[in-house]
Specification:
Layout: H1 2-9, H2 29-45, H3 48-68, H4 79-121, H5 126-156, H6 162-188, H7 193-209, H8 225-229, H9 232-245, H10 258-266, H11 273-297
Helix pairs in contact: 2-5, 3-4, 3-5, 4-6, 4-7, 4-9, 5-6, 5-11, 6-7, 6-9, 6-11, 9-10, 9-11
């Protein structure tokens, strides 16, 4: 009797149609992005230890580097002075980038369990989730960059010019931003947090090696030089160094100007700062897009 009733109820009536929805999601994409951003903002607000650790770390690193490299930004008499200044930028990108990668991974791994459930329920698009995760981090990354830039810029004695300070802030901001996205991305494409940590350490090691400081671009073998162009840290260091020293015509003890030394030794030019800035922004956008595609494709959930 029940089977007969089921058969009867499964038949469409004369004036009825199959259940159909015009869109896959119940809300438009803009509403999904707003909801995911609100949730991420609230999640970070309710997790003060996560933000406090990053802010305390960046204050500590800024004070230590500022003291170690005190006044290096105003010393322009020898090649070693310029190398020290560029070294301070390289150290900052490396330390702060690695710290952002390792700090965001545990939080991103924890939130994946909720994302898998909500993705299966079709609550929102994976790209809306990626938007919320990345944009929700922006205020904290902006604060990190501002704290570091003000402390270090003053202690290291770089030129207090609006343009130069802006470029310093800009390149540090995007270095921290794409490093944070890298931490999220490695969590998505790996089965667990331990593998994510190992993967990110390998990637960061390659970035540091081909950043253009340990081995300048002009001295990298031609068949390895593509690694330099594919390394985000190389573009950040290029922008930082070129914007600060690429237009300085002070003469060094080797009869070269600072501008000429930057071009001959590192291959940096002040005239290229604009397109280097565009490349840094493009790297962050590319990483964000890869993050969105990755969470749409990869699923390591175990039942």
């Amino acid at each position: 009797k029940n089977k007969a009733l089921l058969k009867e109820l499964s038949q469409l009536g004369q004036n009825s149609n199959d259940l159909h929805f015009k869109t896959r999601r119940s809300q438009p994409f803009s509403v999904q992005c707003a909801a995911c951003l609100w949730r991420q903002t609230l999640s970070l607000y309710r997790n003060p230890s996560y933000s406090a650790v990053r802010l305390l770390f960046i204050i500590l690193i800024a004070l230590i580097l500022g003291d170690l490299y005190s006044g290096v930004g105003s010393k322009r008499s020898k090649e070693e002075d310029i190398l020290d200044a560029v070294g301070s930028m390289f150290t900052a990108i490396t330390f702060l980038g690695v710290q952002n990668v390792t700090t965001v991974q545990p939080l991103a791994s924890f939130e994946m369990s909720f994302f898998y459930r909500e993705k299966a329920a079709g609550l929102y698009s994976p790209f809306a989730y990626a938007f919320g995760q990345i944009v929700g981090e922006l205020p904290y990354i902006l604060l990190q960059t501002l704290i570091y830039s003000v402390i270090v810029y003053a202690m290291m004695g770089f030129e207090w010019k609006t343009e130069k300070f802006f470029w310093f802030f800009f390149f540090m901001l995007f270095a921290l931003l794409y490093s944070t996205i890298l931490g999220m991305l490695t969590v998505i494409v790996t089965p667990n947090e331990q593998v994510a940590g190992l993967t990110s350490s390998v990637v960061l090691t390659i970035w540091v090696l081909f950043s253009g400081f340990i081995i300048p671009k002009t001295r990298i073998s031609v068949y390895w030089r593509w690694c330099y162009y594919a390394t985000p840290y190389g573009w950040s260091l290029n922008g930082l160094a070129a914007s600060q020293f690429g237009d300085v015509r002070t003469e060094l003890d080797n009869q070269q100007t600072v501008e000429e030394f930057m071009r001959s030794y590192f291959g940096y030019s002040h005239g290229s700062v604009g397109y280097v800035a565009a490349i840094n922004a493009a790297i962050a956008l590319l990483f964000g897009a890869c993050y969105g595609f990755a969470i749409n494709i990869f699923n390591f959930q175990k039942r």
